[in-house]
Write a structure and sequence with these properties.
Elements (H helix, E strand, L loop, with lengths): L3 E3 L34 E4 L10 H15 L8 E4 L7 H10 L4 E5 L4 H10 L4 E5 L9 E6 L1 H15 L4 E6 L4 H20 L5 E6 L6 H13 L4 E5 L5 H12 L8 E6 L7 E3 L5 E3 L1 E7 L1 H13 L8 E4 L6 E3 L6 H15 L8
Parallel strand pairs: 1-14, 2-3, 2-4, 4-5, 5-6, 6-14, 7-8, 7-9, 9-10, 10-13
Antiparallel strand pairs: 11-12, 13-15
Helix pairs in contact: 1-8, 2-3, 4-5, 4-9, 6-7
Length: 355
Amino acid sequence: MGKKYTKFLSLGVIATSLALLVTGCSGKKQNSTGSSKKNSIALITDSNGINDQSFNQAAWEGFKAYGKEHSLKQGSGYQYFQSNSASDYTPNFNQAAKSGYQTIYGIGYLLKDSVSAAAKKNPKKNFVIVDDVITGQKNVASVTFKSNEASYLGGVAAAYSTKTNKVGFIGGAKSTIIEAFENGFKQGVEDAAKQMNKKITVSSQYVGNFTSTDKAKSMAQSMYADKCDVIFQAAGSAGNGVFQEAKAHNQTRSADEKVWVVGVDVDQEKMGEYKTKDGKKANFTLTSVLKGLGVVTKSLADDAAKGKFPGGKHLEYSLKENGVSVTKGNLSAKAWAAVQKAKAQIIAGKVKVSN
């Protein structure tokens, strides 16, 4: 494995607005004039695209910030190539390289093999794999996050917020990445419950992919019916179904029966907006477990533009570097204080979070 590095981030530059400057495209190729600039960058998405209100969108926000700072135009200085399915990954990498983009990003562990193949085929280009590690290739930088640490904080938040002492987790495709979210969340719930002398149960289910919104909605419906009043979703676009079900539930019930959602990757508070039974504005996004995708994509692009691309290295982002975190969201003062205490304990090494 390449040498592992940590790097400081500031999550504050991640845009929380869901409005994008471009609309999602389909097909293997985007309208692009190509680029011959050494500071040009390209983003290869998974099938969720840049409008997923989650992982890909966060990365794309970093691209837009980088483009603005360096006076680059979309389509020549920076661009995204959306994949409709796994069969589009390799063609999209080839098209991005052929179009002249210098630093090319694969967002998500599903793109690992395609990143590796493209890097071998284009040794003079820079490549980035996010959420996995590629070893032995000097033109590939690997980026991972200690999402289990931030998920632990999400678990603490859920434990201090539940009224029923039953919470849930809904993941996308089962993998070591998503299981890290689940395990961290469960441990956070368990540790917080012990501190409060409570018994809180966690129900877990997996959608099987990151796109089946209806399936995630159905799972959330079952969990809420089973008295879970907080659900942490780490399911990509499929997770939108959890928000849909929470909204449908809360709009027709009293405040005592309110349910919550813990968001993932970006601040998903906006997705929790709804009107109560009596017509008042309210929000059910309890907190969001953040990954600094936007900051990472921009930071690596800046490094590449300076001729300092960290090829062959593994960069790991954790709570200590503020590479992962949680939002205050709609947490009570007591819950937020517990989250901050847990964060300090993890950073100090007093609490070890399972991965």
